[in-house]
Design brief:
By secondary structure, the chain is mainly alpha-helical. Helix content is 76%, strand content 0%. The chain is elongated and about 60 Å long. It starts with 10 loop residues before the first helix and ends with a helix.
Length: 79
């Protein structure tokens, strides 16, 4: 399904659109591409946040990380 929208672009958005159009994309393709990429980045960011929260709640993982940090500290050269 195709849907038309109308937007007002600020200067940053105008520059970004010009950069995308300079790659050979049409104006419509550039806008569609930008929307898809922005949404994917939001999903990726949320996945990383969720993964970090899961790891932070994992006591076994935190204990292992502390062990590795202690070993690394023991191996560190003295100043």
């Amino acid at each position: 399904m195709s849907e038309m929208i109308s937007v007002r672009l600020d200067e940053d958005a105008r520059r970004a659109l010009a950069e995308l159009e300079a790659t050979g994309l049409s104006r419509s393709e550039a806008v569609r591409h930008g929307l898809v990429v922005a949404a994917q980045r939001l999903r990726d960011r949320q996945r990383l946040i969720d993964e970090a929260a899961e790891l932070a709640a994992d006591e076994v993982d935190r204990a292992e990380a502390a062990e590795v940090a202690a070993m690394m500290e023991d191996l560190r050269a003295p100043w």
